[in-house]
Design a protein that fits this description.
Blueprint: E1 2-3, H1 5-20, H2 25-44, E2 51-56, E3 60-62, E4 67-75, E5 81-87, E6 99-104, E7 109-116, E8 122-134, E9 140-155, H3 164-175, E10 188-194, H4 206-212, E11 216-221, E12 227-233, E13 241-242, E14 245-246, H5 247-264, E15 268-274, E16 278-283, H6 290-298, H7 313-320, E17 326-331, H8 342-350, E18 354-360, H9 364-370, H10 375-400, E19 404-408, H11 413-426
Helix pairs in contact: 1-2, 3-5, 3-11, 5-6, 5-11, 9-10
Length: 430
Amino acid sequence: MAISGRFVLLVLLGLVPVLLLPGWGSFFAVAAVLAAVAGADLALAGSPRLLQLVRSGPVNVALNAPVHAALTIHNNGRRRVRGSFRDAWQPSAGAANPIQLVDVPAGESRRAAVVLRPVRRGDLKSPHVTFRSFGPMRLAARQRTVISAGSIRVLPPFNSRRHLPSKLQKLRELDGKAAVQIRGAGTEFDSLRDYVRGDDVRSIDWRATARRSAVVVRTWRPERDRRVVMVLDTSRTAAARIDDETRLDSGLEAALLLGILAERGGDRVDFLAFDRRARVRAGTAGKGNLLGRLVQAMAPLEPELIEMDWAAVPAEVRAVTAHRSLVVLLTSLDGGAPEEGLIPAAAQLAAQHVVVVAAVRDPQLGAMLAERSDAAGVFRAAAAERALLQRAAVSAELRRFGVEVVDAEPHQLPPGLADMYIRLKAAGRL
């Protein structure tokens, strides 16, 4: 039972005769009248126990995009239900109107919609709805919480999608689908053409030359149907916030752009989120389009506050493929002890695969390095210089084992990694 403001006002007005008239008789008389009125009002209120709820609306939504979570309320009771309800969405769902008025006649249904604007990726839930049903005079109300679980999955925004057309154009030029033909790149036979000055003599096809009595050369293109394996580090270092997002979210953006680009390039793509165990797996082997599978797998990912088990990564990659592939490690260059974890694992993988390490660099390091106006600024600049030198040393050690490194700021990492993929294609290393 809930007491309304009107009932409180009546109680205060009822105290007037008590203060003016002597004795307790008037007090008990006023209390009895007020209790009788409130009880009658409560008895006439519709029962929230007899309300039936049905949720509807989209299952998947984009980050920061408005969405309507619909709620159909059916009154199975004999009395009209007038009052309000509160839909218990968590704060990150960004509910604009979680509390609404409701008026459902007996035996009828009404539809309400809560406007959500999610501000966080992942699975958002509303476990229940709380109803408050007032009587005709709105002096008292019945309140009950009805279990009605609702959920939506907020997908990664894929802001790096804007880079996809330009990267696909470069890939088409490389693959011979546009007018530009890059000679000498790739390992898969494309076609025969007449020899021109400057062609590599090793590309001459002597049998075709003998048949045509003219020098003919083979043209090559990057081999298709290669495998790209992306391993995303979800350990504690992925929880660090750089600019306005976590390192994990920056890695997701880079993985999405590379995965879609590689699929359009004819390669097979596998995605693995790992720390001490595999969190999610996705790839081109499943049903549906790759983008849909990737965003569904990435949406619920959160950093785990544990250390990365780099020693287990080569075995995880072998479980995906035993053939030579492009292995991309989306991780950090400044967390833990890379000489004991990242570097040995990358070196072991580089013995069989083409390995790329992609890491997010904090742009604040550059700002700290340039600010030396006072003593505190000089100390911050020295700390930034040391951090950058350590990253450079780790990158140099990785390159010594034949590992490619992409070290870029958050918004530059996705296009930088895509460019590295295209360069490896052009060099015939894939």
